Amino acid sequence: MNNGDRWPMLRRAAVLTLLGAVLCSTAGCGASVCRDLWLGPDKTRHFAAGFAIGAASSTLAGHQGWSTAGSAAVGLGTVAAAGAAKETADLHGAAACWSWKDIAWTLLGGAAGTALGTAVSH
């Protein structure tokens, strides 16, 4: 599969992810939303995890022949999936709530890591 064949798949995944996020944020998805602080003690861990995942996945994509934009899409997509998985686990675990602030910190770290990983691999 060449890079040109991957874009339609990535666009569909991005659109479905965005649609899911919009529906969940408006409908609530039946979830309890955490009342955590923007600068809570766990936010550095979310940033660091997002950074590591974004850097690793975008670097690997670059070394596999993906374009710069493709590597960035892989990095951010992987970070978004990991962040959503973590919050889903929190929702069904001890925290029993979903934190959009945790997602934001994970994505912020992921964007920084993806930028570094893409720069290193291209």
What does the model show?
The protein has 122 residues and is mainly α. The two termini are 20 Å apart. The model has no long low-confidence stretch (mean pLDDT 84). The protein has helices spanning 3-27, 43-63, 68-92, 100-121. The chain is globular. The protein has a domain at 41-121. Helix 2 (43-63) packs parallel to helix 4 (100-121). Helix content is 76%, strand content 0%. The longest helix is centred in the N-terminal third of the chain and has 25 residues, at 3-27.
Biggest pleated-sheet summary: none
Mean pLDDT: 84
Radius of gyration: 15 Å
**3D shape:** globular
Order of helices and strands: HHHH
Instruction: Give start-end ranges of low-pLDDT stretches.
Output: none
Percent of sequence in beta strands? under 5%
Determine the N-to-C terminus distance: 20 Å
Number of strands: 0
Helix segment tally: 4
Oligomer: single chain
Q: Which secondary-structure class do the elements indicate?
A: mainly alpha
Indicate the percent of residues in helices: over 70%
Gist of the model:
By secondary structure, the chain is mainly α. It has 4 helices and no strands. The protein has a domain of 81 residues.
